[in-house]
Amino acid sequence: MSIHFPRPFLFFFLFFPPFASLTVQAFTGTYGINYGRIANNIPSPDEVVTLLREAKIKNVRIYDADHSVLKAFSGTGLEIVVGLTNGQLQDMSANADRALNWVKDNVQSFLPGTHIVGIAVGNEVLGGDDLSLWGSLLGAVKNIYNATKKLHLDEMIEISTASSFAVFADSYPPSSCKFKDTVSQYMKPLLEFFSQIGSPFCLNAYPFLAYISDPEHIDINYALFKPTKGIYDPKFRLHYDNMLDAQIDAAYAALENAGFYKMEVIVTETGWASVGDQNEVGANATNARTYNYNLRKRLAKKKGTPHRPKNVVKAYIFAIFNENSKPGPTSERNFGLYKANGSISYDIGFHGLNAGDSSHLSLKNINNPGLCRSYAMVFSLSALILLILWS
């Protein structure tokens, strides 16, 4: 059977192949947020959608694949990275069929309505306390990736895992950073696989944690993006005026030391606590507002770091809400841009759910709505062509 297309369709088909538009990036623009839910008093996923759309935040990460969240995000245009929890790693590493079923149940079944653009396989595994998981991470990553490939989702879904600074032997100055010897034997094969499939190195970077660990020797202005003399890296011959840039370049240095010169670093968590214990110096609402407001301005500039000026910094903020059920020090429960009732924790330019809870700060829209509209148009037209083909 032969199919004849009108000339306009042939023109579009040549310049905008329908399947090409199915490839999406896991990060649109430069600003994202983590949607942690270890709490019993936070708003519903539907209300979270309202908050995010009001704030024009398009990129979202969750730490599992909760179906109520994925259903709420359907049709919203929000782009979400789902998580395979650390507790599932050993099972997914040992059983390819279960990895396939997990991807079918938690990713494929929600597409295309919910824009799932990535799968984070575990969180802060390497360098973490549970050594039994270190050897399972790569196997889980490969099985999850192979599942997406088998389901023809590998061009749409980015596979990653986030690392903390616990994987590094030293990070000051940035040029001296390298992976710990105990971590390297697990990290290098993981990075080799990520290099093959085009995944970034995901870093949880917290100037807050660095500062509270040594407040006597670290200038808080340097941690908060405020005017300061900064630091000088003699090997890189570069000056750093804020700690986050230095932390990102430390990760680049570690990657280079391991032989990975082209891999991108994406910040998958960063933030500042608004409340802390007595020994958590600097954990207060004033500093949290300063860090998050200045971070938002810095990301909006769409520029790179001193060592990688062409690699635009992208970061997911931690987190949407204060999470009252998290264990650990008080700071762990107070990283939210919003309080449990949906009101803003402090004013950095966002609106809360409550009437009258608004902000008056002006900040240029971080996302690129033109790009989003263009993507939607291409996707819609391509879908129309596919419909003609199948009819």
TrEMBL record:
E.C. numbers: 3.2.1.39
Catalytic activity: Hydrolysis of (1->3)-beta-D-glucosidic linkages in (1->3)-beta-D-glucans
Keywords, sorted A to Z: Glycosidase, Hydrolase, Membrane, Signal, Transmembrane, Transmembrane helix
Gene3D superfamilies, per database record: Glycosidases
Residue intervals passing through the bilayer: 374-390
GO MF, one annotated term: glucan endo-1,3-beta-D-glucosidase activity
Database matches in SUPFAM superfamilies: (Trans)glycosidases
Example of a GO biological process term: carbohydrate metabolic process
Cleaved signal peptide residues: 1-26
Chain segments annotated as coiled-coil in the UniProt record: none
Family annotation (InterPro entries): GH, Glyco_hydro_17, Glyco_hydro_17_plant
Top-rank taxon: Eukaryota
Enzyme superclass (EC): hydrolase
KW Transmembrane helix (keyword) present: yes
Family: Belongs to the glycosyl hydrolase 17 family.
Name assigned to this protein: glucan endo-1,3-beta-D-glucosidase
Species of the source: Lupinus albus (White lupine)
